[in-house]
Write a structure and sequence with these properties.
It contains 3 helices and 22 strands. The strands form 4 sheets. Strands 5, 11, 12, 14, 15, 16, 19 and 20 form an 8-stranded antiparallel beta sheet that branches. A hairpin with a 2-residue loop joins β1 and β2. The termini are far apart.
Amino acid sequence: MTLTELNQRFAINNHVQFKEIAEGMIIAEVSNQHSNSNIAVQGAHIATWQPRGQEPVIWLSPLAKFAQGKSIRGGVPICWPWFGPHASDSKLSGHGYARTVPWEVLETKALADGATFLRFGLIETEATRAQWPNNSPVQLEVTVGKNLRVELVTQNAGKESFVLGEALHTYFQISDVAKMTIRGLEDCDYLDKVGEPARRKQQGGIVIESEVDRVYVDTDKDCVIEDKGMKRAIRIAKTGSRSTVVWNPWTEKANKMGDFGDHGYRGMVCVESANAFDNLVTVKPGETHRLAVEYSVEAL
C-alpha cells in the first residue's frame, strides 16, 4: 500500500498520520492527548514512545538506520517465530525474520479514552514460508495512550502443532545504567549467556556493571526498572510470557555494533518479555497464542 493510500484509509485527525522517512520506510506517527509514538510499518516496529510531560520511555539509538530489510537499533523489535539462533539452520537470521520484513496496516482507531489503537499483520511471502512453513498468521496490536500496550498474536491455522519462540525485545531509556536497578526477578533462575553459558539464580535486584545477557525462565512476574537519575520507575506487566530477557552489551560489543553512538549503552537497558529456551510455546491447530505487555511509568 502506498503512502497516499495509507493516509487515505488509515490516517485519523489528531491521532495518526503516515510519513515516509527513508526510501521505502513508512512510519505511523501517533500523537494523542496522552503520548506520542512512531511505529515503522516494516517489522511493525515501535520505534519510540513518550508520555506527555515525560522523558522518552522507549530508547531509540541516535544512529538507528531505517532501511529496507534491516533491523532498527532500539524501540521494540519483534523476535518471531524463534528467539536467538535458529534451532537447526545457523544461516537463518537470529531472532527470526519478523522484525525485518514488510507488515501491513490492518486497522487504526481512536478510542473513547483518548488513546489510539493500531493493528498490523505480517505479510507472508515465499521467502518467509521457506523459513517457517507453518500456517500461522501473526498480528501486532498496539494501544498508545497513558500506557503503552503491545500484544503479539499468533494463530495456528494449520493442521499440525508447532513450537514457537518469541520476544518483544524492548529497549528502555534510562538516565544512566549506574543509576538503575531492575526489580521483580529476585530468586529466579536464569541462563547466563556471557562467557561460558551457565545456569544461575538471581540474588537481589539486577545491577548492571558489565555486559549482561540473561534469559530468566519460568517467570510471569512484573518487572520494574527503578531509575534514580530520572526519579521514575518503568513497570513492565506481561501475560502469555514465561521468560524475561535482560540485556546490555556494554562497551566492547556496543562499539563493534556501530549503531549505538558514543556511550549509548549507558542510556538503555533491554527488558524483554519472551518465551524462550525452557519456555517455548506449543501452539496446537486452531489455537491462538497471545503475548501481551503493558508499559507504564510511576514516580520513584
